[in-house]
Amino acid sequence: MAPRRRLETMEENRGKLIAAGRKAFASDGFAAASMDELTASVGLTRGALYHNFGDKTGLLAAVVAQVDGEMAARARAAGADAGDEWEQLLAEGAAYIAMALDPEVRRIVLLDGPAFLGDPSRWPSQNACLQATKQTVGKLMADGVMKSADVEAAARLLCGAALNAALWVAASDDPPSTLPKAVAAFRLMAEGFRSGRR
């Protein structure tokens, strides 16, 4: 097989496995998902999974990165319609928290992700979110909308608050009732960063 075609096949297989993993992890959960059924559903073998991801946990990491990246994009889209940059920042956080009600997000990113991949703040997808928040926070501070503080510290606290609120909603016994409390507390905490200058 020509090297270019081989690379295309590998990318195709990787995409198929991520799609199959996403479907299986969302419906059955990571622990219950069968590698044999997952790989067979896309006409591949366990060997293809091992070759592309190392193991089932590696596949979960790839699926979490994909879903978490989509969450960040959805949050940015929600923020884009929220008015000024301050309201956009708050709307992004609230939208991220609200995604805890999405069954796929809840199961894959907020329940199984931390359980099997460890601390979400160390995930590459969360680091990308942090970098974007740092840029926004830096601009808001420069414009006098936010109080002067260490930009990274403020961004980490805002990102961490949204993430932890989403984790709380996802793990609660009654996520729909927990969500408004989590969003209200997030907004109240964020207001502490806001400058008195409008």
UniProtKB/TrEMBL annotation:
* Alphabetized UniProt keyword annotations: DNA-binding
According to UniProt, the name of this protein is TetR/AcrR family transcriptional regulator
- Top-level taxon of origin: Bacteria
Q: Where are the transmembrane segments?
A: none
Q: Which organism is it from?
A: Azospirillum oleiclasticum
Chain residues forming the annotated DNA-binding region: 34-53
Q: Which residues form the HTH tetR-type domain?
A: 11-71
Q: Does the keyword Secreted apply?
A: no
Q: Which Gene3D superfamilies match?
A: Tetracycline Repressor, domain 2 (1.10.357.10)
What Pfam families would the database entry show? TetR_C_41 (PF21351), TetR_N (PF00440)
PROSITE patterns recorded: HTH_TETR_2
